[in-house]
Design goal:
By secondary structure, the chain is an alpha/beta fold. It has a six-stranded parallel sheet with strand order 1-2-3-4-5-6, with no helix packed on it. The chain has six helices and six strands; from the N terminus they run H-E-H-E-E-H-E-H-E-H-H-E. Helix 4 runs parallel beside helix 5.
């Protein structure tokens, strides 16, 4: 209720950054839709750790006014392919960073949607998305450009194929990239990149 009421405040449409991470654990689709619908021209939105938020909440993001959105974090939300499709439809080439960590319902369908619409992505996090296969990631990379750094929380330039091959030798993982990186000490640092240069970060 508090979130929905806040969305009706006139200045909400002028917000550039909205960070509700960890503070919207009880938020429902109804309240989150109200919040997102009230936004306009926002550049960074974080609704991470909202387990009750589903694909329905992301429907407002399909509006073209979200083409200015540069970074979106839906970590551990109950979001799947439909939600990502809404994101891709509205944000399109404006989106630079997308965090889908822990969104276990996301599959290759979502990655294909991103590769077709969000062609300026520079940072994508899909840890915990076990249904995503290497094939869709390779397709995404072929559209966006070479991956410079596989792990966004490490400050080095890595050779993608070498890292993936080394991890495969050490692990008997079953599809996807979910076990390539598992560093408990890692923290996401927001970056605002206005000049796209290919997919530089993939986790």
């Amino acid at each position: 209720r508090a979130l929905a009421k806040q969305a009706s405040v006139p200045f909400s449409a002028k917000l550039q950054h909205l960070d509700l991470a960890s503070s919207c654990t009880d938020a429902t689709d109804g309240s989150m839709m109200s919040v997102l619908t009230g936004l306009g021209g926002c550049r960074h939105v974080s609704i991470a750790f909202a387990p009750l938020v589903t694909d329905v909440s992301l429907a407002p993001l399909s509006n073209q006014k979200f083409k200015t959105l540069r970074a979106l974090d839906v970590t551990n939300a109950n979001v799947g392919d439909a939600g990502v499709a809404w994101i891709a439809a509205g944000c399109r080439g404006g989106l630079r960073e997308l965090n889908l960590r822990g969104c276990s319902a996301v599959t290759d369908v979502a990655i294909v949607a991103l590769s077709e619409s969000c062609t300026n992505l520079t940072c994508l996090s899909i840890s915990g998305c076990g249904y995503i296969t290497d094939e869709s990631i390779q397709r995404l990379a072929s559209v966006l450009g070479p991956v410079g750094v596989l792990n966004p929380y490490r400050k080095y330039t890595a050779d993608t194929k070498k890292i993936v091959n080394e991890k495969r030798k050490k692990s008997s993982r079953r599809g996807g990239l979910r076990n390539i990186h598992d560093h408990a000490e890692d923290t996401l640092v927001d970056k605002y990149i206005d000049i796209p240069s290919g997919l530089r970060v993939l986790d």
